[in-house]
Description:
The protein is of the alpha/beta class. The chain is built from 12 helices and 6 strands. The chain has helices at about 10-25, 30-35, 40-50, 55-65, 70-85, 100-110, 130-140, 145-160, 180-185, 195-205, 255-275, 275-290; strands spanning about 115-120, 175-180, 210-215, 230-235, 240-245, 250-255.
Amino acid sequence: MPNQPAQPTLRRRRLGEALRKYRNQAGMSLDRVAEVMGWDRTKLSKIENAKAHIRPVEASKLLGIYGVDAPDILMAIEALARDAAKKGWWTTYASVVDAHVKDYLSLESDAESTRICSPNLIPGLFQTGPYAREIIAASSFWRPADEVTAFAEVRKARQAVLTTRREGGRPPLNFWAVIHEAVLHQRFAAHPTLMRDQLRHLLDMSGLPNITIQILPMAMAPNPAMMGLFEIVRFPSPWPTVVVTENVVGGQFVEGTEHVAMFEGAFDRTVAAALPVDQSREIIKKTMETDSS
């Protein structure tokens, strides 16, 4: 419908925030910019507050008014303006994917690289279907069985970012995971072969050139991963890095240079406590073989 208000997707919010930042840096008021653009003040306000669309050519013109001429910024803003209204593949699962999950999937789709500390679970991008269903059923115990199945399907569909080229010819996501060794020894009484298949998949994924997997050994030095799961999501310039933390009721985004830097330092310290890649592969392989015997 032509008069339907635009939905404030994460991409549109990021675009609006960026345009507001560059306007403020230029020291220009909403009224002045709207006058130069030949717009009503309300239109620019709605764009900055993610309540209205903006065409790439209009975004480019705004940047010119703000004196922003760096090629990487121009390309990034134009691309975001072009893609902001696009619907993600996850809209098929609208009944189970809430706003937070949509935002997370949008971040993951746009990301250049992700680094994750996962002390208690196999990371979602590595989970097999049966493992995902068991974990989702346990952590989202209030969901009916059909929603658990749908959510597991969403988790599997996400994994395409690791193996296929993305929009605009972008390469697959670079993914670096640090996993505690105890996770490899999880067992599911009702599904005796589940973990063996999961470890085989994890081993296969570790061979991809864009994936790094390190194992935190049982006898490890104290490190920040002991505090729980966190994920550092990086984007092409000029978009800032975002940190994602999770708990039983969902997740939380952490932004801001100072806080993000703390998590980046935490990841570096966790990596230092983990085994090298080759030794990590050997531990996964040995654990899988022990489970098969």
